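Technical note accompanying the year-one report. For the benefit of new consortium partners, we illustrate the data format agreed upon in the data management plan: each record pairs a sequence with a structure-token string. No post-processing was applied to the example shown here.
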Amino acid sequence: MNALWIVIISIIVFIVAYITYGSWLAKQWGIDPTRKTPAHEMNDGVDYVPTKPAVLLGHHFASIAGAGPINGPIQAAIFGWVPVLLWIVVGSIFFGGVHDFGSLFASVRHKGKSIGEVIHTNMGKKGMMLFSVFAWLTLLLVVAAFTNIVASTFASVPAAASSSLMFIVLAVTFGYAVYRKGLSLKIGTIVGVIALFLCVYLGYLFPLQLSLNTWIVIMMVYIFIASTAPVWILLQPRDYLNSFLLYAMIAGAVLGIVIFRPSIQLPAVTGFNVNGQLMFPMLFVIVACGAISGFHSLVASGTTSKQIDNEKDAKAIGYGAMLIEGVLAVIALVTAAYISNGELTELLKGGPVNVFSSGVGTFMSKFGIPFDIGKSFVALAVSAFALTSLDTATRLGRFIFQEFFDNPEKEKQSVLTNMYVSTAITVIIGGYLAAGGYARIWPIFGSANQLLAALSLLAVAVWLKKTGKNYHMLTIPMIFMLVVTLFALVLLIKSNLAAGNYILVVFPVLLFVLAIVLAKEGYSIIFGSQDLQDTSKSN
């Protein structure tokens, strides 16, 4: 089959889904363009900042994308391209899109608070505490993993390091010019994007060579600053400008595929049991961000909901960004599916990003961009988004940590609610894991991430039912992801017991128990007959 048709049909399906299903969701949930958002009600110039939709879409998309929709589909290609493609398309539309849109909207209606606080309001303090602990631990894994990814990339590709540092300076300049000096966003964007690609070029001319451990330390200092700085000075502008890197990469890949029209070489289906991995549940865990990801709910309810200017923007930012990520996941799958099994195996020795950058570099070469330049550009873009996800995850970890120890009934709050203290704790532990410890628990990250998605769907469904809104579109995704995750955790516990990795048994067991407890709490509300009195008339 020609890969061009896979990409074109997928894009058309996503556009139709956005126009029809996305609009239906907005109508069912009661999106109200006349209602004030938390960004306006609680504007503090640091976290709560009204933001133009295009800028916020760039921040949100850059934060949720990272390397997830690239790594997952390529790794899952061992099961064949058909099941992976079907899950990306169906998952993005009916699972991930609903999850992201619902999480964002629920947070907006809860004053920009996290999903943990949504659970607190609608399911009680016990549920919130359990969810918050789990979400924070998951974010520590994200911080550790992406710190290692970024530091390794910078150490091995010095040009990417110097370009990324220049990106940061450019972002601060852009943010100051637009938000404090009144520079037009349109003019700022044109100048900023030109400067962005100039940074890429200068990075090749002046590579910065440092050791892996040195970069880890630098990343720790950077994410501490990025997590506590006002969003308008770094987070928003950096993510917004970086999003153009990803847009350019996707456009270049699609154009190259149109010209190249590569044929799919990978088998449609390779088997249910491949190298000891079962298609169910592992396909749905491995693809991760390419179809649905719990991390997205933390971004949507952590930073994005505090910046949304108008409720009507939630559809484009929450649902639309997930569909764009679905397009990226389809392209990632094609980069693995158009080459032979032998070549894929060889390229995978350098990791999924190597497969992706080689594939997109090949596609771009079809319209005149030299392969080496195209491949390097793609690798740089992926590392830039890993950095974006890194500092967003740190800020989210800080939010959740502060909310956990916040006690509105006390006049004097615990020192643990201080943003500098909570950030320091998150950064230090994440840095320790990144320095060597995180690799031991990395195998459970995929399951933890998808469990987080199931619990977020549960939280949104409970809130929608309590406020008299249609919640049925969340129940099937919620139940499916719970079953998938619990099954995957059982397999993980079994394999670690057999291998004698007893430390790695504890965490999956805790996750399993957490899921059961929260699912039981949610089930009694969604399917039970208890009084469903609205807990907040403002919702």
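Partners are asked to follow this layout when depositing records. The radius of gyration is 22 Å.
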